[in-house]
UniProtKB/TrEMBL annotation:
Belongs to the BtpA family. This is BtpA/SgcQ family protein. It comes from the Bacteria. Transmembrane segments: none annotated. Coiled coil: none annotated. InterPro entries: BtpA, RibuloseP-bd_barrel.
Length: 269
């Protein structure tokens, strides 16, 4: 069922760490004085700390591009491509990208920087903090083929942060129809916001609902709950727990990464 995970990450139940890029040109919080050099240095420091701490993969995202767009501007994709291009020589593990919240832009970026996966809101329609949030999974699937990115794995987030499915549907029903209609490479289950713990029971419901799709815990994993989450999930995507003092806005803390990954490796053994 999850053979592609072992092929990509060289382990079962991988931990994918987020590399949160500082605000980029065009973003409200962009530091024009520090410029792109500041963004690159910050990202490089985080990548080194994450890799030395032992994570299995990295995902670059424009996490500080708040408030997010559902159709990302060209300048954002260009800026992310520059950062990743300058850091590629430092990245020794599998990596993916996430242009919040635009799956087409994410695929375009993945194709440009040879990323192996994306994570996005690819299906469904939502009432969200960012307005009415619609998707077009058929267009996204065809776009992946059209740009030669058929080998880029697509992680479908079916519980988007700061949003709710517009129709009143049970999460198990959403998981089943997402798998049947879209054939996702993986399904992500999240908490309410970045850093919010994902309900293990919801993970279990989704895991039981699908037949062959890997399930990833998408938010809120920490050293105290990761064994419980991985007892259900096929992997996890982590960010806030790796930051200094566990605070979202802070840089990555190597010691926190190492402590977390030591627990994960012991669990996997």
């Amino acid at each position: 069922m999850v053979s592609w995970i072992k092929e990509v990450f060289d382990t079962e139940k991988p931990i994918i760490a987020m590399c949160h890029l500082q605000a980029l040109p065009g973003d409200p919080d962009y530091d024009a004085t520090g410029g792109m050099d500041k963004v690159i240095v910050s990202a490089k420091n985080d990548v080194i700390a994450l890799q030395e701490g032992g994570v299995d993969g990295i995902m670059f995202s424009n996490e500080y591009s708040l408030p997010y767009l559902t159709k990302v501007e060209t300048v954002t994709v260009a800026a992310m491509a520059r950062v990743i291009g300058e850091l590629r020589s430092f990245v020794k593990i599998p990596y993916g990208v996430n242009c919040l919240w635009d799956p087409i832009a994410s695929l375009d970026l993945a194709a440009a920087v040879d990323a192996q996966f994306i994570r996005e809101i690819i299906s469904g329609v939502y009432a969200s903090d960012f307005g009415l949030w619609n998707t077009d999974p058929g267009k996204t699937a065809r776009h992946r083929l059209r740009i030669g990115a058929k080998n880029v794995k697509m992680f479908y987030n079916i519980v988007p942060e700061a949003a709710k499915y517009l129709a009143d549907r049970d999460i198990s029903e959403i998981a089943k129809t997402t798998e049947f209609n879209n054939k996702p490479d993986a399904i992500c289950v999240s908490g309410l916001t970045a850093g919010s713990e994902t309900d293990t029971q919801v993970l279990k419901v989704v895991k039981d609902a699908v037949r062959k799709t890997p399930i990833f815990c998408n938010t809120g994993c920490n050293k105290d709950n990761i064994e419980r989450q991985l007892s259900v999930a096929d992997g996890a995507i982590c960010a806030t727990t790796f930051k200094v003092d566990g605070i979202f806005e802070n840089p990555v803390d190597y010691k926190r990464v190492k402590e977390f990954m030591d627990i994960v490796k012991e669990f996997r053994n």
